[in-house]
Write a structure and sequence with these properties.
binds S-Hydroxy-Glutathione, Glutaredoxin, alpha+beta
C-alpha cells in the first residue's frame, strides 16, 4: 500500500517550507492541509501536535511528527535512497545538524525580533540578524551550497527565510545583498532548484501578510 503523507502547514511559515522542500527533493506525493493560524487552530492540529500546537506537522501513515528540523531528518531517513540531504559521515552529519540548529535558533529569533518589534528592539534585532548572516556566509565560504557540491540539510533549513528578506529590508531600510553578497548569490542558486522555486511563496505576498500581522499585533501595542 502506498504511504499516506499529510502535511499540516501555514503557507508563509519558513518552518513549514523546510518540510515542503524536503518532500519535493524526494519527490513524495502528499496532501497539503493549510492551517490558517490567523483564524485559529484546527482540532486536527491540536490532536496531532498536542504538546506545542504548532505547524508544521507531518502525518505519515497516521503517525505525527513535529518540529521542522526533526521532520526534515525523518523524511531524509525514511526515503534515504532518494537525494540524501544529510551527509553519511558521522562527523559531517553532526556539523550539518549544528548549522541547521544555528539557523533555527539564531536566524529565526532575529527575524522574529524584526517583524515583531519596533524602535530600539527592532534595531537590535536587525544588528543581530546581519551578524548571524555574516557567520553563515563565513560557513558557506566558496562552496556552492552549505552541503558542499550538493544541496543539503543546512540549505533546506535556511533557504525558506530568503522569501522574507524583501520584507526585512523594507522594515529596516537596508540591503542584505550589500551586507552579504555571497549569501544572496547562494540563495539565488538555491532558487534555481525546482524544489525551492515551487515552495517559496512570492516575497511581496509574504510581506503583505507580515505587514498585516504587524498592524494587528505590533503597531497598536
Ligand atoms: C517552530 C514552529 C513554529 O513556530 C519548528 O517546527 O521548527 N520549532 C518549531 N510554528 C508557528 C508558525 S510560523 O513558523 C506556529 O505554528 N505558531 C502557532 C503558535 O505559536 O501557536
Amino acid at each position: 500500500m502506498a504511504d499516506e503523507v499529510i502535511l499540516l502547514d501555514f503557507w508563509p511559515s519558513p518552518c513549514g517550507m523546510r518540510a515542503r522542500i524536503a518532500l519535493a527533493e524526494k519527490g513524495i506525493n502528499y496532501q497539503y492541509k493549510e492551517e490558517d493560524l490567523l483564524e485559529g487552530k484546527s482540532p486536527l492540529l491540536l490532536q496531532m501536535n498536542p504538546v506545542y500546537g504548532k505547524i508544521p506537522v507531518l502525518v505519515h501513515n497516521g503517525k505525527p511528527i513535529s518540529e521542522s528540523l526533526i521532520i526534515v531528518q525523518y523524511i531524509d531517513e525514511f526515503w534515504k535512497d532518494i537525494s540524501p540531504l544529510l551527509p553519511s559521515d558521522p562527523y559531517q552529519r553532526a556539523q550539518a545538524r549544528f548549522w541547521a540548529d544555528y539557523t533555527d535558533k539564531m536566524v529565526y529569533s532575529s527575524v522574529k525580533g524584526i517583524y515583531g518589534g519596533k524602535g530600539e528592539k527592532q534595531e537590535k534585532a536587525k544588528k543581530e540578524f546581519i551578524e548571524v548572516l555574516k557567520v553563515l556566509e563565513g560557513e558557506l565560504g566558496d562552496e556552492p551550497y552549505f552541503g558542499g557540491e550538493s544541496f543539503g540539510f543546512v540549505d533546506v533549513s535556511f533557504i525558506p527565510f530568503y522569501c522574507w528578506f524583501y520584507c526585512i529590508e523594507k522594515l529596516c531600510s537596508f540591503s542584505i545583498e550589500a551586507e552579504c553578497p555571497k549569501l544572496v548569490a547562494w540563495a539565488k542558486r538555491c532558487m534555481q532548484k525546482e524544489s525551492v522555486a515551487k515552495t517559496l511563496p512570492d516575497q511581496h505576498k509574504v510581506c503583505e501578510l507580515i505587514l498585516q500581522i504587524r498592524k494587528r499585533f505590533v503597531e497598536n501595542e
